[in-house]
Hints:
Blueprint: H1 2-8, H2 12-24, H3 33-46, H4 58-73, H5 85-93, H6 99-112
Amino acid sequence: MVKQFETLLSSRSNYSEYRKFLSTANLPCLPYFGLFLTDLTFVTDGNADSGNFGFHNLLKRRKQHEILQLFAHFRTREFVFHPVLALQTYVHQLQPLSEDERYSLAIALANKT
Length: 113
């Protein structure tokens, strides 16, 4: 399963496998927001605001719109969550760790890698 996710989320070919997956994903779906931000940044910073003769670069605006439309597509259906009483009970009974306990745990985890 890990290998499948590595293949799906590989940055090779501008995340082509992930983009292909998103194009057929059933809604509701929560895509990786960073992909859209990267695309918007690339289009915004990589293209001039004005085209020939000082007119607005409409191709840039169209591409920005396409990216935002795709992101908005994933917001067209809401997730429906049902409460799980056993999980809620478990979470509510958890006691937070002290700062010293968190620090010790962080050190122990860092030493494992």
